[in-house]
Amino acid sequence: MRLPSPRGPVTELLFGRLVRPPDGHALPLDVAGAELADPDLQLALFVCYELHYRGFQDVDDRWEWEPALLAARAALERRFEEALASAVPRPAVEEPGGVRRALNELVAAAADPSLSKFLAQQADREQFREFVVHRSIYHLKEADPHTWAIPRLAGGAKAALVEIQSDEYGGGRRERMHSELFRATMRGLDLDDSYGAYLGQVPGVTLMISNAMSLFGLHRRLRGALVGHLAALEMTSSLPNRRYANGLRRLGGDADAVRFYEEHVQADAVHEQIAAHDLCGGFAAANPSLAGDVLYGAACALELERLWAGHVLACWESGITSLAEGAIGGVSAVRTGKEGPDVAFGA
Asked: Which one of 25, 65, 80, 168 is CB 3.0 to 4.6 Å from 143, fit for a cystine?
């Protein structure tokens, strides 16, 4: 993919530099006071992180480890971590043996904005397409951020993570990789299934979900938060995905389009137990001082999901698009991946 359009002064400066070769000059990015979901902050951070994944056609790969960019990214990360800390109360530190119980309590107490119920029962096809556009930012790289933890773990926790990730990557079969299954869902909804196709059309509240995973994954000091984050995703996945599958079938989705959601209903019911007990429980037992980080990572996953789902539902209830301002809904459009005009979402 190519760099998207800037969202403000930070991305304006950053992108202007990234399209040129690295020159060693400092990148003074000012994000003081930026809100958690600020689109300028989140897009800048997402682009910095993406250089560690697949990169951009118009950005020299040498930028990935350019000291000036790493220093600028550190400033973005500091503000993101500060905003996360303000938005997500840190759960009480548990004894390592109590981590699984504490995870279950966090999940049980998590607020449910009922987005999955809306998609199952009420959403029209264009709203479901809009939902899939949001999700494409993570699902087209599904599992990659959490895979950063593999070389940072040992023993039973490492084996548990590899077991989960093996399923995410289709057990070595391309057609069963979850990212490939999601591409089939996108094609079934006449959406562009190419990697990052909609990066420029999602709001900061969507980008912050992926950025939290990358933040936790790229810093060894946050490995506890990363495994807790993964556990929260697995523990809250099966029921919503069953609803997504039902909603897409209601709207005429065929077997290929629905398979991604059906796969998660089955796989994540198993992953839930592995992630909570073997991964998080084993990690906390081996790293008692990081038990609190495990719970914090889980709390971040749950709260960011709640904020995102609340944003989507609030926009739809107001009759407007939940995507980035000016991107969809009669102002601009979403490419269908086919020849012909763009297709605009309607609420």
From this structure: 168
> Among all chains, which residue has been given the structure tokens 């490492």?
158
Question: Does 134 share its domain with 243?
Answer: yes
Per DSSP, the chain holds a count of helices (H) and strands (E) of: 15, 0
Residue positions counted in the chain: 347
Among residues 67, 80, 75, the alpha carbon closest in space to that of 28 is found at: 75
Claim to verify: residue 109 and residue 148 sit in the same structural domain? yes
Q: How large is the average pLDDT for residues 12-18? A: 98
Phi–psi pair at 341, nearest 5 degrees: -70, 165
Residue pLDDT, tens place only, 98-143: 999 999 999 999 877 799 999 999 999 999 999 999 999 999 999 9
State how far the Cα of 326 lies from the Cα of 330, in Å rounded to an integer: 9
The answer to whether residue 233 is domain-embedded is yes
Q: What are 230-249's pLDDT values in tens digits? A: 999 999 999 999 999 999 99
Residue 33: partners with Cβ closer than 8 Å, 6 or more residues away? none
Question: Looking at the structure, do residues 155 and 297 belong to the same domain, yes or no?
Answer: yes
Q: Which residues fall within 8 angstroms of residue 59, CB to CB, at 6 or more apart? A: 3, 18, 19, 51
Q: Looking at the whole model, is its pTM more than 0.85? A: yes
Written as one letter, the residue type at 81 is: E
Q: Can you tell me the distance from the alpha carbon of 292 to that of 161, in angstroms, rounded to the nearest whole number? A: 19
Q: Distance between CA atoms of 223 and 51, rounded to whole angstroms?
A: 20
SS3 per-residue string spanning 94-145: CCHHHHHHHHHHHHHHCCCCCHHHHHHHCCCHHHHHHHHHHHHHHHCCCCHH
Query: By residue range, what is the domain housing residue 13?
Result: 9-87
d(CA 328, CA 344): 6
